[in-house]
Amino acid sequence: MRILGISAFYHDSAAALIEDGVILAAAQEERFTRKKHDPGFPSKAIEYCLEEAKINMADVDYVAFYDKPFLKFERLLETYLSFAPRGFRSFKTAIPVWLKEKLFQKDFLRKEFKKYDPDFDWMNKLLFAEHHQSHAASAFYPSPFEEAVVLTMDGVGEWATTSVAIGRSNKMEMVKEIHFPHSLGLLYSAFTYYTGFRVNSGEYKVMGLAPYGEPKYKDLIMDNIIDVKEDGSFRLDMSYFNYCTGLTMTNDKFANLFGKPVRGRDGDDLEQFHMDIAASIQAVTEEVVLRLTRSLAEEYGIKNLCLAGGVALNCVANGKILRDGAFENIWVQPAAGDAGGALGAAATAYYHHLGNNRHIDTTKMDAMSGSYLGPAYEQKDIEVRLAKAGAIFTVLSDDEITNSTADAMASERAIGWMQGRMEFGPRALGGRSIIADPRSPKMQKTLNLKVKYRESFRPFAPSVLAEDVGEWFQHDQESPYMLMVADVAKAKQIAMSEEQKSLFGIEKLNVPRSEIPAVTHVDYSARIQTIHAETNPRFHAVVSAFKQRTGCPVSVNTSFNVRGEPIVNTPEDAFRCFMGTELDNLVIGNCFLKKEDQDEKLKLDYKNAFELD
Fold it and tell me: N or C: which terminus of the chain carries fewer CB neighbours within 10 A?
């Protein structure tokens, strides 16, 4: 039985295909269209899924959509009626779009899918899950747990913003919800907006900025903006926000509380104040999440926790949940945002709606195949594509590719690394990555300013051989999806001098914190990915070869793109990014490229090629 799941029309549209319970393929539409967070109908992602399975749409048994448009429309109307007459401008903007497109999404979807197969019975084969049900299903069904508490936290679905489900075998029951407008995700997004970053993409920046500040405003936030109960349930004081009725996230009352206006987006006026604000909202988020998880562990007595929704991408909070110990085991969906809803919708249809049995393969970490669920390219195809693009490359054997890449890393060269299937979700996990030597004290600044073209404060993640993680980090578990933060091991840290301790904010950036400074944040933390030979043998082999040369089993790993650009998908995408940045090498399949060998005429200016993210 084949189920195609799709998410669309908000942000990060995606498609996923399940066959007899096995996840065959999943990808975001943005990777094909090259439009960051593409919200459109995921036609190219659907085509990829069908192609990967070598089937046509006629071979699909059901199509599942990740939310229920009518319930969203109900929430929109009720919200505007509740706040009327305020918000008429926003209402006037939104309603025509809903009436023209979103309210009739079911008919729109039928028409789109009939383009693939005019004879398919869409009236009976098109299924709809609820938004948080899709998120929860994406976390529980691929997890390695027979039973788990499933916590979903995001901006908003139809009505739910935070929900709890109990998953057992092939069934999942939604048991608790907090409803819009009270939302932890929207609270974090409000502070993203206030600190001058883009909502729905800049939340990572707030999390990365937080360690440069002190949570001076935590009590102010909890005393005025959010009322949090002991069990983690919460309510927001909506008089500080504008997202229900306006075209902005916050209002003047919000700004007056903190004594400064909204920062101009991505301006040059990033101050210690903004770092302290980031630290404060991060601390509030962690407080809420820890109260939730502790109360859920006590109430249900289940040892396993699954997480999904956009807030589950807050890997600092995830690491604190793990170390808190209320749950013995935690599993986070790597595509925790809306893209993962496509997979969750398909899983909901297959297990919950149709009642199919669920089998957990105990020989594997989970059912996600390392999240390598996107397109891959055959060696001959890579060579043809690169030659057509004008690239100069050498074709090497498997051992030669491993050794040449490890040598380049050890020589402090920045490498574009494209191997195997593309990752599903926002993290690059060694399939579409930029890799480099983490021991280099200049590498973080170099990659941020000369390759990624983004803010210098943003940290890079370490990818570490799974067998060595405990020696280098205060973490002794698998973290294959880069969704856990832990400190660098004490033995690897470099103590700060008294003079260094007196530094503030961004001044701390260039102070080496450990033996691997390129991946150590200012608070000695790191966003860890463990590399497993079972799911990514080539990446594991390269980092193993680097370890043989240097004694260090760690690589810098950041996504293969510049800021504002989707992660590369095709060899052509990779070559363009290589030629538009100051990357030194490009390795695709068995093709090895050096920047100095390339035609100068093919160089591009990627610095301003994409909008700020």
Answer: N
